[in-house]
Amino acid sequence: MEENLNFLEVKNYSEAEVRELSPLALAYIGDACFEILVRSEILDIRKNPNKLHRESIRYVRAKGQRELFEKIEDLLTEDEMRIFKRGRNAKSHTVPKNADPIDYRIATGVEALYGYLYLLKRYDRIRDLFKEMIG
């Protein structure tokens, strides 16, 4: 998958720089990373954009991300779990009206984890976790 993410190449961040980012900043970039993975996974020439959008929502909405997280929770390293928990525990001050607050917090943790891995260019790990989530 590394070659698939080259067009998304980011500047080189040290681990210390990434750890200094707020968990909501990590979730911000992780949301985009996760979204592109989902869209790439479900892309099918036989589906119109409306069908693709509805299918992607299953994965990217808070409840979907919580359900997907449950598949990888036991696979995370201590470091990854620490990043997830930072994201989960971040105070976002907003929760979408159609989302359960607990699901939303878990989804923010998932997005923070993906942002962390993405900024550190751990593309193989992103691929492995995503495969487990959707497999």
UniProtKB/TrEMBL annotation:
The keyword Chloroplast does not apply. Keywords: Cytoplasm, Endonuclease, Hydrolase, Magnesium, Nuclease, Ribosome biogenesis, RNA-binding, rRNA processing, rRNA-binding. It is found in: Cytoplasm. Residues 25-119 form the RNase III domain. One of its GO terms (molecular function) is ribonuclease III activity. GO terms for biological process: rRNA processing. The active site is at residue 31. One of its GO terms (cellular component) is cytoplasm. Belongs to the MrnC RNase family. Homodimer. HAMAP family: RNase_Mini_III (MF_01468). This is Mini-ribonuclease 3. The gene is mrnC.
